[in-house]
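Because discrete structure vocabularies remain unfamiliar, we reproduce here a specimen of the format, pairing a chain with its fold in token form:
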Amino acid sequence: MMQFTEIPPPQPQTPSFHQSPPPFFSSLSMNKNQVHRTRPWPGFPMPKSLGSLGDANCMEQLLVHCANAIETNDATLAQQILWVLNNIAPADGDSNQRLTCGFLRALIARAAKSGTCKMLAAMANAQNYDNLCNETHKFSIIELANFVDLTPWHRFGFTAANATIIEAVEGYSVVHIVDLSTTHCMQIPTLIDAIANRLEGPPLVKLTVAGAVEDAPPMLDLSYEELGSKLVSFARSRNIHMEFQVISSSYADGFSSLIEQLRMQKLMYSGGVGEPEALVINCHMMLHFVPDETVPLISDSEANPNYLFESSSVYSPRSTLLKALRCLDPNVVIIVDEDADFTSNNVASRLRSAFNYLWIPYDTVDTFLPRGSKQRQWYESYIYWKIQNIIAQEGLQRIERLEPKSRWVQRMRNADFRAVPFGDDAVSEVKAMLDEHAAGWGLKKEEDDLVLTWKGHNVAFAAAWLPA
């Protein structure tokens, strides 16, 4: 049972639940059987029935109304809606209830951060909602590998990318992979295995990662230097010589330090120092952390001088990064990301988009992890973190700024890249991988791209690009 500090009851003229409900409740249908249990909220009466507010559409409406009430500093209305959500969305309920509970926590955290709805902020402080939503597990390498293997969410991108990378680096004796990934190089061992088996023999592999200082789950319990040492040892066991480097660089400024160092290395090789190398830019679910045009970051005049590619009046680290990558003349750029839109500056619009996308991981988890298991706890805390970042954070702290595939396609074209289709081998390997998981997962082709689906809904996409 959730306990909160005492909240004064609403004034008599304010609609309460033993009287006529607020207008937006009247449009929601009633079904007593869908309410699992009723939990008291201090200062409010206990109704005989809450009705069919457990329906996903009704939950979404309530969350949107609550978000608008918080933004307009209507504490009474926000408290009333949160009381209803508290009773219909237990943290241990079905997938829709757990999803809604995550948004409920995020809305209370937002009220506390924004300083509006002071009584809601007091509730958040009393319950330590901010820390609750930020509880994330630090994985060992084995735990993280098992975590990634739970669903095709990441494996889809790994499989599609690896098959394409092998084609792109054919004939090169030196392969440089720049891995911009949220999964701490979990893709690399399978890529090493594939490279080790190529007919012309294994190349020298250089692996560069961006050691971003920001903490975003999933998090690893060892440093990148330790991780690199383990990867080098693994590559050696496959008769591959690997060089590993970490460049301290942040997605907050579009990986400017990383780009500059890669640019200097390219100048060195073009000057005849060292062997020509195939350059692979592998972007796995991290590009959307780079700020977009909606973030008030810096003006053109203050932009990094190495980034003077942007001609518009609005500085976009996201588009600027892609143009900087194009100047490196890579052999292939792989972009894998989730196919949703969380870029709106309107919190209610963002909430709708997130609610209608993040039901998918909650729905899938019910097919393979039992309630109460540690893996399920880690899995759902990861989703809670995403929800809180989308709803409770703003500015540079809000890094879950997903863009749909269509917008990334346009950005890549504007940066002078052309799309290339995935080969038959890549498609076959992705299909074989999906056969290892639940029946709800599917694959479809959209022009040159591959799209992972769950019960027909787009989840993630993979796209391959070459310099135009």
The radius of gyration is 24 Å. The chain has 15 helices and eleven strands.
